[in-house]
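Handout, page 2. Input:
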Amino acid sequence: MITSLQNPLVQQARGLLRRKNREERGQFLLEGPKALEEAVLADCPPGTVFFCPSPSTEPLLALMKEKGWQVVPVNERVLLSMADTATPQELIAVLDQPQSQLDQALKQGTLWLVIDGIQDPGNLGTMLRTAVAAGASGVLMTKGTVDPYNPKAARASAGALFRIPIVTGLLPDELMEKLGEAQIALVATSPRGKIPYYELDMTKRLAVAIGSEGGGLSPALFEGSQVVSIPQAPGIDSLNAAIAAAVLCYEGVRQKLQRGVQPFPL
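Output:
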């Protein structure tokens, strides 16, 4: 059992709490039995998992060993030092970040989620999970958006990081050009939208763009989008970004099912 904070494995893991180190090393931390179980079920490449011995996690650790994970026991002090939460959740793993390219992510499918400038990692993780659940073919994120491998975002995504192509660091103009080449229309929401979202044909190749609640979409994306509205009660400025993403993505699911089109990858 590792008991020292100076252990090289521990120091390397702790370094991943900083975004710069995550980007340089292409790795990230994933915390908690539920999130790690989802990652294992999604057949993510084996990583290194640190754990405090507990009967409740023994079955998951046994499965990880079978799949080739490095399993490292540590004491509570060591686990706390690499945790993003005040109370660590028994297991923390170091994993490689999945790599996806934009051209490849746009080749097949009918639905993509574009995330522009979202800063709340919990919101982002929820949106990633929603994209997977709605059968999206990829998540495209602009430069300046919160890191999807932030510990809180990774935890909130509940394994979605390994179930869908995620492309980060995109410039709005570059993204618009690539969407045009792939014949993918872009749709955004705004109270200024001339039609309600449910009147839009969402069975075609479509990217749903979600901007930050404070700043909205960047001008290049907004101007290149078909803008629709989500009806709301008077006095409400906007929906939570993750809720808006879910409303639009699942409208696509509803329309496809209604027309006998399979909305989910087989």
